[in-house]
Amino acid sequence: MKFFKNKGVQSLLASLICIVLGVLVGFIVLLLMNAEGAGTAITNLLKNFFFYPGADARMKYFGTTLVKTAPLLMCALSILFAYKTGLFNIGTAGQYCIGICACLFGALYLKLPWYLCLLMAVAAGALLGTIVGFLKAYCNVNEVISGIMLNWISLYITNSVLMNVKESTSPYTLKIMATNNSALLPKLGGVNKFFGDNQYITIAVPIAIAIAVLVWILLEKTKFGYELKATGFNKNAAKYAGMTEKRNMIVTLIIAGALAGLGASFYYLTGIEQWEVTATSVPGMGFNGIAATFLGALNPIGTIFSSYFLQHITDGGTHINNMLYGSQIAGLISAVIIYLCGFVLFVKHAMSKLAIRGEENKDVRFEPIKTKADDKLEHAIKDENAKEDGKAVQEGGDK
Known about the structure:
Blueprint: H1 2-5, H2 7-33, H3 38-47, H4 55-84, H5 92-109, H6 114-139, H7 143-162, H8 176-179, H9 190-194, H10 204-221, H11 223-233, H12 235-240, H13 245-268, H14 285-295, H15 300-316, H16 322-325, H17 329-340, H18 344-365, H19 372-398
Helix pairs in contact: 2-3, 2-17, 2-18, 3-15, 4-10, 4-13, 4-14, 4-15, 5-6, 5-7, 5-13, 5-14, 6-7, 6-13, 10-11, 10-15, 11-13, 14-15, 15-17
């Protein structure tokens, strides 16, 4: 039971249980729709790049999954950072969207180099986070409400601004490779050959991992991180202790917004995708970050692996046979698995209660059971001891 009471063990087991449940439910959905191809479909979803027969093709598509994991990881870190300080940054999707707007506008319209486009995305996300933080700290506006509203405002701003840099014959923005090659993130040199000369593998992947480690250090090993978490636990107690709770709220959401905006630049400045200016919903990357955060047990290091897993099954869903299940089934199965991954904290809490109950039962099981004979013997011993004490007192008095 002590083994299962360990928080790290609980987090790992809870994540694995939720993954297995998600895959199982997804498989049941496939069985109900078409039992004949269900086994092959769920296998292809889990295999992802292993679906391809050649080693070069496998490594190339593995690299593509890593490219998509980097922005998902940044969105997950954005949500995690705010959540650790008692805030739920559902506005990550909008901060990611406005980051797209800033980096693509800088790359395609202003023709800026990649590092300035990246900084523009960070600044745009941080600005949106500042608005949410200010409304929370000084107007007591719930960050969820303001975040949701800003998600849609960000989408419409992005569509309007990027209309100036779209292709004339399609609703998509211009290609960075053909318009401003200097805006592309630097590649990893020889590492690209390892991934089958995948041109989209850039410095974004290692930087995203490094930032996850830095977030862990900031939250767990610094005074600043302690103050942020203390403000999240109880802002009144933090204020009484001399901490500036309003400033901490705003700073938290500024950092969270900056992380989401940085994630947008990590994806779109690779040139892997163009933005559709007629989009009617914010990118799902921001919302998938919520699942990645909780699947990673609210740990920045765990979030690295959970982000990769969610992107792995999302890409694997494209290998499901659409002739048997339709074009939307891949998204449906991935969504089911992602949804169930959000129950990690619930499973972890249940495991903690079971471990505590097991310890209590163990204590009761080995407690000696007293009988009536034991009680009589105990009373007789007490009476005998009392008589001897009385005699000793009397003898002392006589002397």
